[in-house]
Amino acid sequence: MAADQGVASPELPARLGRVLTRIHLTDSALVADLEIPEDREGAQEWFDEVIEYADVLRDVLSTEDQHCVDWLEAIDSMPPTHSGPLRLLHNDLYPEHILVDEESGELVGLIDWDDIAFTDPMLDFVGFYLWRGRGFVESVLASYEVPLDSGFWERLDFVSRLGSLEWLYDAHLQDADVEKHRRWVQNAFTEPT
User: Fold this and answer.
1) 62-83 burial string, b = 16+ CB within 10 Å, else e?
2) Are 106 and 11 in contact, with CB atoms under 8 Å apart?
3) pTM
4) Which of 62, 139, 154, 161 is the most buried (most CB within 10 A)?
């Protein structure tokens, strides 16, 4: 079952960290025949898209979450771009793509590899941030063995906020699970301790 539909094992963050280490350290020569694209899109492209529907987001967010759109509209600079090597990423790693055993909550697989790309490794952590918060990402990173560049956390905080707003907007348009995406916005905008 998908990770967001049941109880996850306490070992899930460590297992995800080890799995992402193996994926992100994949030698590009080993997958050269697969013609996996490079994706150099960054925070600016995300921002340019999300700022266009700030007014709609104001209508969708609760009164206490209006500060999220205030934050969006006040952005005047972008976080530093990724300075490390591009890594092989799942690139769409959200709870519905993480399969866990129904009884034990142990990780059994990752599905939906349609967006696989060589890109900024930070992107594989955005879904964790939205789903379970920054603390969960820190738990995953405790078992992740790929060096992080100096701007990793600044980009992750920033892109997680933008992503949460983008997916809330999409959920609103599709009349999908808006409440889930409101929780994701709250996770993304909870200040780190």
Assistant:
1) eeebeebbeebeeeeeebeebe
2) yes
3) 0.95
4) 161
